[in-house]
Amino acid sequence: MLSLLWLVPILPLAGFLILALGGARLSRKVTSAVGVGSVGFSTAAATLVSISFVWFTPKEGSYSQTLWEWMRVGDFAPSVTFYLDALSLTMMVVVTVVGLLIHIYSTAFMASDEGYSRFFAYMNLFVASMLILVLADNLLLLYLGWEGVGLCSYLLIGFWYRERENAQAAMKAFLVTRIGDTVFAIGIFLLFVSVGTLQIQPILDAVSGYPVGAPLCTTAALLLLGGAVGKSAQLPLQTWLPDAMVGPTPVSALIHAATMVTAGVYLIARTHVLFAMSPMAMFIVAIIGTATLLLAAFSALAQDDIKRILAYSTISQIGYMFLALGVGAWAAAIYHFVTHAFFKSALFLGAGIVIKALHEEHDIFRMGGLRRSLPTTFKAFMAAALTLVAVPPLTLTFNSKDFILNEVWLSGDAGRVLWVLATIGTFLTAGYTFRLVFVVFFGSGPKSLEEQPSQWMVVPFAILAVLGLAAGFPELLNAAFGAQGFYGFLQSAMPGPIREFDSHSGVWLFQAIYIATSVAGIALTYLLYSLAPQYVRSIASTFVGSRLRLWWLAGWGFDWLYRKLIITPYVRLARLNRDDFVDAVYVGLERASQGANHLLSLTVNGNVRWYVAGLAAGAVIVMGLVVVL
Amino acid sequence: MAVVPAEIGLIVAGLLFCVGLAGVLVRRNIIFILLSLEIMLNACGLAFVVAGAHWRQPDGQVMYFFILTMAAAETAVGLSLILQMYRRFSSLDTHAINKMRG
Question: What is the pTM of this model?
Answer without folding.
Answer: 0.78
